[in-house]
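A note from the maintainers: we've had questions about how concatenated examples are separated. There is no special marker in the raw files; a new sequence line simply starts the next protein. For clarity in this README we add a label.
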Amino acid sequence: MNDVDATLAALADPTRRKVIDLLRDRPRAAGELAQAVQMSAPALSRHLRVLRAGGLVRAETGGEDARLRVYTLCPEPFTALQAWLDQVQAFWAEQLGSFKNHVERGR
């Protein structure tokens, strides 16, 4: 699986997308994320594991309490996804431009 595939797979679930949206504002503790998405900590832990495996988020221990994990976004997967989307958009813009020229020549 390439990087874009891993990113899309991680973002396929609405709960994980909600976590990403929450982390866009600021880093958050796992418990705060669980409360925000109205999910138990163990259930959210599975989603966070997928996001970490996809490289979309990273966890750091929160100071004195080694059990506290604070999650932040990793920009690299989103940059790679945006580059791929830009390529797809450029392809379709070229295709539509060619079609427009074809139609106009036929008039």
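[label: protein 2]
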Amino acid sequence: MAHIDILDTTLRDGQQALWGMRMQAGMALPVAPVIDRSGYCVIDLTASSLFEVLIRSCRENPWEGMDLMVQAMPRTPKRSGMRSNAAVSFGVTPDALMDAWMRQLNVHGVRSLWVYDVLFNIDKMLRLASIAKEFGSSCSGALMFTLSPVHTDAYYADKAQKLAASDHIDSILLYDTAGVLEKERLSTLIPALIAVARGKPIELHANNILGQSGKAYLDAVALGVTVFHTSNRPLANGPAVPSVQMFAHNLTMLGHTHDVDVALLEPVARHFERVGKAAGYPVNQNNEYDVLAIQHQIPGGMVGTLKANLAQHGMTDRLDEVLRETAEVRRELGYPGMATPFSQIVGIQAVLNIVSGKRYSIVTDEVIGYAAGFYGEMVAPIDPNVLDKIMTSARAKQVIARPPEQPTIQELRKRHGTDDDDELILRALVPEADLNLMRAAGPVKQDYPLLSSPELDQVQRLMRIAKSPVVKVRLGEMQVELYRQGR
């Protein structure tokens, strides 16, 4: 029997997958102390993409919100993830800005980091890990898993060996964005990773898109994995990871041990159910097994983006066609792993191929940059016919003539007009207009005002059933007036 460490991803991956990264600090602060006392080994808290969404969609200062969350959870190490060569954009971010991002996360109290690169620029991953070590933080090197003819056990073992050889890497994180890992593959892959990991723990993160990741977790326990990523049930499953409730139950049933206090899980679940329902966000999701999902391997959150892109063209009925096209584009581009940025790059190109009616008649700058090697060494060559279409596209010469720049931190501070690296990162992430709107919104709210109440439940029920253009109702001392849109 084994002792298993459980990592909580409710506040990062769970809300990223299910709520589109729109969890504001006030939505989580009321239960943050409970999560902190629950016995998790680490609490996954933030990432650069969450910063962008909080600024642009929620008008909330992410540094301020993160500080409040860190203060509310003093017991448990907080984690953030980083792509090695980019913060928010699907392009390439200067190394100096990535270094500043790593430093400032640590300055604000993050003490557990994970770094990844879909094309495995190991040197960039280790450079960032070395900065984490300057603060005494732990760092996990991630293997972004994908199924393809070229992503073999030997391929992943080679990357794991290079990561584990560094003193800056404390664990190896096997990250299955599409939830395609099952017992047959795990039974060869996990031993291959353990053999080269130098005794460093193996972590597993597997989104439950196919509904099989809960079983995969138990198979991985039997094979020697000791750290697992889970979310509290309202923000688990579907495109997110398995629930901590069921994983903890299954571990106990099989005789394994863990440190999570299961009595503290339910109040957190009730809170996020109320928040999700009040905000109109999905909770308590489950997915069915879909063979097409194995072919395209798009992370769950990206499916929503594709739907939005198709809706702009009045083509929502063609989603399955786009998903099949995504699988074909992925093959033609040499099987890049389907995690940021390539899930977006491949998916958007597939949409363009369908919408335009002629494949690769429109090619994105990011696809051109990928073909030009801006992102790093490809796993496999691009299909020659497709490469020819990419390199002869209208934008190709312009993009290739402007490879990613590498300004110094001093040059970046001068360019953005600030010596404050917190501010520098925000200005580099989003336009000044968005920052001005964020500042105008005032301080971060420390609670969420739309939580359900008997009165609000009555109003919501009334909104659903009212047919008249104007409805006025008095409920005790509260008067409600409803007007149909357009009046």
